[in-house]
Write a structure and sequence with these properties.
Number of strands: 25
CATH class of the largest domain: Alpha Beta
Oligomer: single chain
Shape: rod-shaped
CATH topology of the largest domain: TIM Barrel
Number of domains: 4
Strand content: 15-25%
Low-confidence stretches: 1-21, 81-86, 270-283
Distance between the termini: 127 Å
CATH architecture of the largest domain: Alpha-Beta Barrel
Radius of gyration: 49 Å
Mean pLDDT: 79
Largest sheet: 8 strands, mixed, barrel
Number of helices: 29
CATH superfamily of the largest domain: EAL domain
């Protein structure tokens, strides 16, 4: 019971009609079936004439028993599918040898035909009756002829049962030969070595079955109650046989489940569906061909139809494995699964349909598909219907789909639905990892992947970065939702312009485009165009928001003496070019190596600043301020200076903005504040009452803990708050007024003097001054320097002085460099002057020397000494 070939019927191969749609091969098989039938009839006639018929009343009992034996042998089978032919392990040799030993040829032939053809018709698989009838006749006629010839030749030498044994074995070999012939007619092929091994195995199984039948006959006929013993052994063998059949089926089903799961997983890992592909879609339906084919092979079906919804927004895709669907079935296929009568499937159970016992609507659907039997099961995911599987018609077995097939298809469908759900989830996670959720464009990671692919292919490309500006203002006025809408709209505009070129949103309002095979001149034109596109007004609800943009680009073509650029370097260079473009006229700049040196220097300044504070490279200088018109020295402004060991004396305008942008400004402010308070304490100890002004940044005004640190420093040095002045610009306050104003009010409540620096260059409105808790206003030096030559500047200065006094504010003029300016300020009633006429910023040592040389001590009304500037 190792392996016995069976196909379509009880003994020998029964090739399927639906297994081959080629009309030539179908006609060839029909002709082959007629030849087999004629050969079977001729062999039966010859055998009937050769073997005499002996009638007895026992035949009335033996005939039905043989028919039942043949029918039972067909039910106890293990089916193995080899290409288009099904091979079956069965007990057919047992009733055959019993018939050779006990009944005439005609009775055995009738029993075999009655069991085989009757079972075929009863199971609605009588489409191969000519071929099956011919093979059945040959499988009975030839063994009887061989048995008669062997017994006649070896009469008196061999036992009587030797001839039937040899005849039964010829039946097995005959069945194997017809199976191979049918395979060849159908267009298949089997190597000679494989065919030889199959014949040997068939002979071995036939010999085993024949021996079992012969031993059982001898025991039953010669031993009292032998038939009972044979029955017990037969029941045990049948049980063992069925258990082995079930185990083999389970093993094959598990292999099929594993293959299907692996096929689904591998189909999601094809090279054409890289995660960084901006046009990435759900995998094409062709990738599911191995899955459909594996299901078809496992169920030995003529056709498997997979109807899959690979994209939730797309129509159902159809994949057919095996025999193609008729053209009319393709044309009439419904767009929705629920519209097909075979696929109106509640739950996730398998439904079986046959043309003989189904409603008319289902029969019409089956005829349209060219099928007489179908299994259908939905593929349901966690929250939706993912598709359906149809299995049409058995290929190699006449008995149709059984309960084991239904169970397997249900399990396969469950695994397939789970795998599809997992794959969708994986695809969504992969997409989210490489795409920006707001715009749907690539993110930085996805852009790097796509750009790296282009560069690895050896293509010269330009990375273009475009930044959309004024979004901070939009967010403050309308909220972040509206600024997000502007970003999404800008992304759509750019996508329309660049087509399929890789486009990404890097962060915030920054976009990047990869331009393959472009020169820098072409990239400059594209950059100007994209900058104009995203700078066009944005209609938001009932308002129109103006926008601006800057662009920078960098080419992968290396400059002379430079190494080749990778993606990260190109992005960095494009970022440097964007920063340079902000200071340009047209807002578009290409990267030049010199730009990298500038930003490298800035980077070095940032990384070295903390060490510079600790090592004494950063110093505080002081520029004196005098009261008008009496010229009393009332204080000084603290100004930071950095003596860099490599770059020398650095201008504050070079390193202070960099320090502010990187968050180190808190350390800088704390350093200047501490040194200023130390200086004030020294002056107080000498009897001098002078204040020091310290500049604040945007970050200081946004720090709610800053007033507490100031109060602690004042207590530690025992200094009155009015001797400390904080200077702030209008823009620093208006950058985040909701956070800045509470900080300013706490400082003002402490008694610290607050001064508005560079007044006249920012908002400079009366309403602005009224809402700020300030004590001083400083006139920007650009107006003071222009008083001598421009009447407009003089009018501005006079207006600021009058405005400040009307609000009870002290007015300080910066940039006083000559006596004429000082006299004009005195005439206008300005309170304090500061500038080169009085003194340049001085180090602590030089400040002390300046105070001794250019001032005289005047005892005030209190115990403090007042310094008055000498003429």
């Amino acid at each position: 019971m190792i392996e016995r070939h069976r196909s379509l019927e009880s003994q020998g191969p029964r090739p399927p009609v639906r297994a081959e749609v080629d009309p030539v091969r179908r006609r060839r098989f029909t002709a082959f079936s007629l030849i087999v039938l004629v050969a079977g009839l001729l062999a039966s006639g010859a055998t009937s004439a050769l073997v005499p018929f002996h009638y007895s009343t026992d035949l009335l009992f033996i005939g039905p028993l043989l028919a039942m034996g043949f029918l039972l042998a067909e039910q106890l089978t293990i089916d193995v599918d080899v290409r288009r032919v099904g091979w079956t392990i069965s007990f057919t040799e047992i009733p055959l040898i019993l018939g050779l030993l006990t009944a005439p040829f005609e009775v055995v032939l009738a029993a075999n035909l009655l069991a085989g053809l009757g079972a075929q018709v009863g199971r609605r698989a009588a489409s191969h009756v000519l071929y099956n009838a011919g093979v059945m006749c040959l499988e009975i006629a030839v063994p009887f002829a061989v048995a008669h010839a062997v017994n006649a030749a070896l009469a008196g030498i061999a036992p009587v049962w030797f001839g039937p044994v040899v005849g039964t074995l010829t039946s097995s070999l005959l069945s194997c030969g017809f199976a191979l012939a049918a395979l060849l007619v159908l267009g298949g092929a089997m190597r000679v070595s494989a065919g030889g091994r199959l014949a040997v195995r068939t002979l071995a199984v036939g010999l085993l079955n024949t021996s079992v039948g012969l031993v059982g006959f001898e025991v039953a006929s010669t031993t009292p109650w032998g038939w009972l013993l044979v029955g017990l052994v037969a029941a045990a063998v049948i049980g063992l046989y069925r258990a082995y059949s079930g185990l083999l089926r389970e093993q094959r089903d598990l292999e099929a489940l594993s293959d299907v799961s692996l096929s689904v997983a591998r189909s999601g890992q094809s090279p054409g569906h890289g995660a960084a592909d901006p046009d990435e879609q759900t995998s094409p339906v062709a990738e599911w061909e191995p899955v459909a084919e594996r299901i078809r092979e496992q169920l030995n079906a003529t056709r498997v139809v997979l109807r899959l919804r690979l994209d939730p927004a797309a129509d159902v895709s159809t994949l057919v494995a095996g025999e193609p669907l008729p053209a009319e079935a393709e044309e009439a296929a419904p767009a929705a699964l629920r519209d097909d009568p075979l696929l109106q499937l509640p739950g996730s159970h398998v439904r079986s349909f046959r043309t003989l016992d189904s409603p008319e609507e289902v029969r019409r659907a089956l005829r349209l598909r060219g099928a007489y039997e179908a299994l259908a099961v939905p593929l349901r995911g966690a929250s939706q219907l993912l598709g359906a599987v149809e299995v049409h018609d058995r290929v190699s077995r006449w008995r149709g789909f059984g309960r084991a097939d239904v169970r397997l298809l249900h399990t396969l469908a469950s695994h397939l639905a789970t795998a599809m759900d997992n794959r969708r989830l994986l695809g969504r996670l992969r997409h989210d990892a490489y795409h920006d959720p707001l715009t749907g464009l690539l993110n930085r990671t996805g852009f790097r992947e796509r750009a790296a692919e282009e560069l690895r292919a050896g293509r010269v490309a330009v990375v273009l970065r475009v930044d959309l500006d004024v979004l901070t203002t939009v967010s403050e006025a309308l909220g972040h939702t509206w600024s997000d809408r502007m970003i999404a709209a800008a992304g759509r505009r750019m996508r329309e312009e660049v087509g399929q070129a890789p486009l990404a949103r890097l962060e915030a309002s920054s976009f990047a485009v990869l331009l393959p095979d472009r020169t820098e001149e072409q990239a400059h034109e594209v950059a100007q165009h994209l900058r104009a596109v995203i700078a066009a007004p944005y209609p938001l609800d009932r308002i129109v928001v103006e926008a601006a943009g800057v662009a920078g680009y960098s080419s992968s073509a290396p400059a002379v003496g430079e190494p080749e650029n990778d993606v990260d370097v190109l992005l960095q260079h494009a970022d440097v070019a964007v920063r340079a473009a902000r200071n340009g006229e047209d807002g578009v700049r290409g990267y030049a190596p010199a730009m990298g040196q500038v930003f490298l220097r800035r980077f070095q300044l940032v990384t070295q600043f903390r060490q510079a504070l600790d090592s004494g490279q950063v110093e505080v200088h002081y520029q004196p301020k005098v009261a008008l018109p009496g010229r009393q020295v009332v204080g000084a402004e603290a100004l930071v200076r950095w003596s860099h060991p490599e770059y020398g004396r650095l201008d504050p305008d070079e390193f202070v903005p960099v320090v502010e942008a990187t968050g180190l400004v808190d350390a800088l402010t704390s350093f200047v504040l501490e040194r200023s308070l130390v200086k004030i304490r020294e002056w107080l100890d000498r009897g001098l009452r002078m204040s020091v002004a310290v500049n604040l940044s945007v970050r200081n005004l946004a720090d709610e803990a800053f007033p507490d640190r100031v109060a602690e420093a004042l207590r530690r040095h025992d200094i009155a708050p009015e001797l400390l002045t904080f200077e702030l610009t209008e823009s620093s306050v208006m950058a985040d007024p909701e956070r800045a104003l509470p900080v300013l009010r706490r400082l003002h409540a402490m008694g610290v003097v607050l001064a508005v620096d560079d007044f006249g260059t920012g908002y400079s409105s009366l309403a602005y001054l009224r809402q700020l808790p300030v004590d001083e206003v400083k006139i920007d030096k650009s107006f003071v320097l222009g008083m001598g030559t421009a009447l407009g500047d003089m009018a501005v200065v006079r207006t600021i002085v009058e405005l400040g006094h009307s609000l009870d504010l002290v007015v300080v003029a910066e940039g006083v460099e000559d006596d004429a300016a000082r006299e004009q300020l005195v005439a206008m009633g300005c309170d304090v002057a500061q500038g080169y006429l009085i003194s340049r910023p001085l180090s602590e040592e030089r400040l002390e020397a300046w105070l001794r040389a250019r001032t005289k001590k005047v005892r005030g009304t209190r115990s403090e000494t007042v310094l008055t500037l000498l003429h």
